[in-house]
Hints:
Strand order of the largest sheet: 15-18-19-14-13-21-22
Low-confidence stretches: none
Radius of gyration: 23 Å
CATH topology of the largest domain: Aldehyde Dehydrogenase, Chain A, domain 1
Bound molecules: NADPH dihydro-nicotinamide-adenine-dinucleotide phosphate
Oligomer: single chain
Number of strands: 25
CATH architecture of the largest domain: 3-Layer(aba) Sandwich
Amino acid sequence: MTKTKIINYIGGELVPPVSNTFFDNIEPATGKPYSLTADSDEQDVANAVVAAESAFNTWQLTSIDERAAVLMRLADLIDQNAEALAQAESVDNGKPVSLAQQVDIPRASSNIRFFAHAITQYASESHTMANEAINYTLRDPIGIVACISPWNLPLYLFTWKIAPALAAGNCVIAKPSEITPMTAFLLSSLCQQAGLPPGVLNILHGYGHKVGEAIITHPKIKAISFTGGTKTGAHIASLAAPKFKKLSLELGGKNPAVIFADICNDEPDLDTFDDVVTQVARASFANQGQICLCSSRIYIERPIYEKFKRALIAKVSQLNVGDPKDVNTQQGAIVSQQHLNKILSYIQLAKEEGGTILLGGEQRYIEGRCNEGYFIEPTLIEGLPLNCRTNQEEIFGPVATLQPFDNTEEALALANGTEYGLAATVWSNNIKRCHSFAQQLDFGIVWVNTWLMRDLRTPFGGMKQSGVGREGGVEALRFFTEAKNVCIKY
Length: 490
Ligand code: NDP
């Protein structure tokens, strides 16, 4: 059977890479190649820049109503093709198809619809100076911008970046991860059907270090919105900063969940102990732990430590690991052989550092179609101090550590005790305590008695090594526009 060729979308056309070379795209659940990805390079970037340049003048002058309308058509087309996109996402990434159906694809169309609405409400400021002058601030599109996204939530994060950039009137050169390019490729045809003018969005496929780097270093690309690992983010910043490109970096995390003993004081309108166990399990293991927001360090107040530990082990051990295509699967495949090896090496490291494996800890072999796929048992570990590598470095897999704490000060020191600052969760029935704790956490996002509850208007991003800048709502529209203040003397 001939394999699908994942090709570029440039100037409104689907085109092979100039080099006409491709590499295998692997299905993580089987470990086998199932399609071919364009191995693009700087020649494809040059063509995309020409297409984007010629589209920019018209697109920036297109009325916001028209820009919003074309984005709404694109969102509708994603909804109409939701099932096919969810199946494709699951095959390409290894995530359970139910997750792609319920989260990834609906969120992709919401992202586009949200920014289509948002641009129609986007207003700039004016500042009057008594009887002397008035200032008004223009917020114009930047020009050609780059959007680079990772493999863990492929279409979800791809659309999260391109939607505000396009809505604000920019032309975009976007690259999905070479590990999960399929749904961005499928989006190309939907853009054609939606009537997105040629060159407004250009999607290039290939390796990060090759075509990705050619995009971010191209002199005509003025802003870069990047989501990915902290090391890659630092590298991109080192290339972009001397050229004074505008940068938004959404990077890694090592997120704490802090659970206070008062969750056992059931009150009618607050979470019960069982609910918290269920939600902490979900927060740690959704998408095989491969969400930048997943909790990987679980801190439990000592009086309920043993009880919570036993309940969490019981809950996590029930997670159904298996073929992502099966609607009953809750834990699918790890995205690649390389990432599987990385996670297994961290489990080995945890043992060497003195950790006790409470659950899992091994590669899982699945009979039948998936017998060469990349599966790992959901893993819980205890007995490790804060300063060991297992508790300091991002593993980005189905692995979480447990540790007791004795008071609020200790919990705060543990939670804040890494170089990362993306997302923290706090679980308590004492809302006053939650508020004061949240104020002292060095994290860009704090969830109290919930996880991954997203309002797209809120600022999204990390502190410390988890990133620079914020996405979401007005923050994203500000990033993708250039502010120019005009001062008129009366
Ligand atoms: P990477 O940093 O490896 O890659 C991210 C993207 O950058 C990919 O498209 C990659 O392409 C590309 N890339 C790699 N090298 C370069 C380069 N030199 N120049 C330009 N582009 C490049 O991250 P992963 O894909 O492995 O994603 C996992 C990471 O993303 C985790 O650390 C996770 O925490 C983080 N993340 C952060 C989020 C946040 O909102 N803060 C959300 C989701 C994930 P290719 O894959 O083709 O090499």
